[in-house]
Design brief:
The protein is α+β, with helices and mostly antiparallel strands. The protein is built from 19 helices and 14 strands. α12 packs across α14. It is globular and about 60 Å long. The N and C termini lie far apart (57 Å). It comes from Shewanella metallivivens. This is Glutamate--cysteine ligase. Pathway: Sulfur metabolism; glutathione biosynthesis; glutathione from L-cysteine and L-glutamate: step 1/2.
């Protein structure tokens, strides 16, 4: 099996560089709508933004107040971020004075009963989306669901796949995934899962550099029993001195019921088998909630996962689904098409939650994960992955922090310097002779290895602890500044009309869906889960 450096050298020519640069990217950014007081918005999703059910660019996530902006797939980083910025700019012009909360952890939260669950209309599909979110409320509480993040979708070019496939076939070494009989499509899926395994071993790098939630408003935990020994500053700011991403801690997107699933990433078939079993696995805890109680639906079902989207993971294998198709069915049909990175906090120092240096680093990081040898993961490896991530999430900037690599202790800084040395080789190749963009981005984040204050979490701590600014006050001022910036961001009449037309078309599409003949909701759910959920799950109790 070729090493990372050998693969990079194999691609070190004009055709190889062009194949590498053929990456496709997409961004999904979440942001809460807030009122003038910095409190969660209570009104409906603005009609000017279209239908949350059918608008391809602007939708909602868990809450009616939690907006999600989705970019089209793009080759160009500049075009990708310009499109994301335009979507933000159109949105703030249509919020009736409301603003976007520019960090991952929520704004001031009073009564959790005032967190509005997203509504998607009267169609069975829309009702199911709302009920899924109602189920999340009963299972984990509403607070966890209004934490915002950024998702980064990534795929490489067919040209790169062809070059890697041809090289593998010419240099097969008896490995199962390298055998002469493997198809091109299976090779792509196996390679993406190799990327995923390497990503999971190195995922701690992302919260170290890009984690930006070391502090939060005390209102977030006022009714929770937490084990963290928070320090306090200002009127109500809580923080952990060396934390990087409380969003990724036990306070954030976690599901302890899923700890027993042991879903394997060693191959696509093993992954699909694990997800399929999880969807069918009953939960005694969730069964106590009830499903349909006196005609009131509380969740989709009482299994560990209501649907596949409830599987919380820092990365997902994805394929665009056909109408009516579940994510796992799409993967089983045609293999992995792209991966979704889910370990990114909202960058509070960007008006759109992510910047170009981060995107370029992610390009390098994910290509490194793809091009590096990737052994299967066993139980000990899984434990190591979890322990490293937890250590960095809670104490990533702690001087002298050590991690475990293949059972051996290694300093975080030492490991990162080794990684960045290999990423540097790739950055030089991608830049070629006419650019230094990847090298500049890499050098920017390399400074944070030895100077943790230059990480995003370090910069947040500087604002709220060193400067002594209350977290909510600081974030609220950012919200105002970004609102002003986006409200005056240049949008052509044509661009603005395009968004307006898209919103109008999405409302018409939702209306069309709702006017079609519908089964009863109970029958709709039975049909949706007919091959998944045991009979009787949906009966009134």
């Amino acid at each position: 099996m070729k090493s990372f450096n050998e693969k990079v050298e194999h691609l070190n020519n004009t055709q190889g560089r062009e194949a590498l640069l053929g990456m496709l990217r997409g961004i999904e950014r979440e942001a809460l709508r807030i009122d003038d007081n910095g409190h969660l918005a209570q009104d409906e999703h603005p009609k000017a933004l279209g239908s949350a059910l059918t608008n391809p660019r602007i939708t909602t996530d868990y809450s009616e107040a939690l907006l999600e902006f989705i970019t089209p797939v793009n080759h160009s980083i500049d075009d990708l971020l310009e499109g994301l910025t335009q979507t933000h700019a159109y949105t703030v012009r249509n919020l009736n004075g409301q603003k976007l909360w520019p960090v991952s952890m929520p704004c001031y939260v009073g009564d959790v009963a005032n967190i509005p669950v997203a509504r998607y209309g009267n169609s069975n599909t829309g009702k199911m989306k709302t009920l899924y979110r109602t189920g999340l409320t009963h299972r984990y509480g509403a607070l966890m669901q209004i934490i915002a993040g950024v998702h980064f979708n990534f795929s490489v070019s067919n040209e790169l796949w062809q070059r890697l496939y041809d090289d593998k076939m010419a240099n097969g070494n008896g490995n199962a995934c390298c055998s002469k009989s493997i198809t091109f499509e299976d090779f792509i899926s196996e390679s993406y899962f190799g990327l995923i395994r390497n990503y999971r071993r190195l995922v701690w790098v992302l919260p170290y550099l890009f984690g930006s939630s070391p502090a939060l408003c005390g209102s977030f935990i006022k009714d929770q029993d937490v084990d963290f020994e928070f320090e306090k500053t200002g009127k109500g700011t809580l923080y952990l001195p060396y934390a990087t991403s409380l969003r990724m801690s036990d306070l954030g997107y976690t599901n302890k019921e899923q700890d027993t699933l042991n879903i394997s990433y060693n191959s696509l078939p093993e992954y699909l088998e694990g997800v399929g079993a999880a969807i069918k696995m009953p939960s005694k805890k969730f069964a106590q909630i009830g499903v349909n109680v006196d005609g009131d639906y509380r969740q989709l079902n009482s299994n560990i996962l209501q649907i596949e989207n409830e599987f919380y993971a820092p990365i997902r294998a994805k394929r665009v689904t056909k109408s009516g198709e579940k994510p796992s069915q799409a993967l089983a049909r045609a293999g992995v098409e792209y991966i979704e990175v889910r370990a990114l906090d909202v960058n509070p120092f960007s008006p759109v939650g992510i910047d170009a240096t981060q995107v370029r680093f992610l390009d390098l990081f994910l290509l490194h994960c793809l091009l590096s040898p990737s052994k299967d993961t066993d139980e000990a490896g899984e434990a190591e992955i979890a322990a490293n991530l937890k250590a960095v999430v809670l104490e990533g900037r702690k001087p002298g922090l050590t991690l475990q690599r293949d059972g051996q202790t290694i300093g975080l800084k030492e490991w990162m310097h080794e990684l960045f040395a290999e990423l540097s080789t790739l950055a030089v190749l991608l830049d070629g002779e006419d650019s230094h963009a990847y090298q500049i981005a890499l050098n920017t984040w390399a400074e944070a290895i030895d100077e943790p204050d230059k990480t995003l979490s370090g910069r947040v701590i500087h604002e709220v602890v060193v400067k002594g600014t209350d977290h909510s006050v600081w974030v609220h001022q950012l919200a105002k500044d970004y609102h002003e910036f986006l409200n005056h961001y240049p949008l052509s009449d044509e661009t603005e009309q395009c968004y307006a037309d898209e919103a109008k078309a999405s409302l018409a599409e939702q209306q069309k869906i709702e006017q079609q003949p519908q089964d009863t909701f109970s029958e709709f759910l039975k049909q949706y889960f007919k091959d998944v959920v045991p009979a009787g799950t949906f009966e009134a109790k």
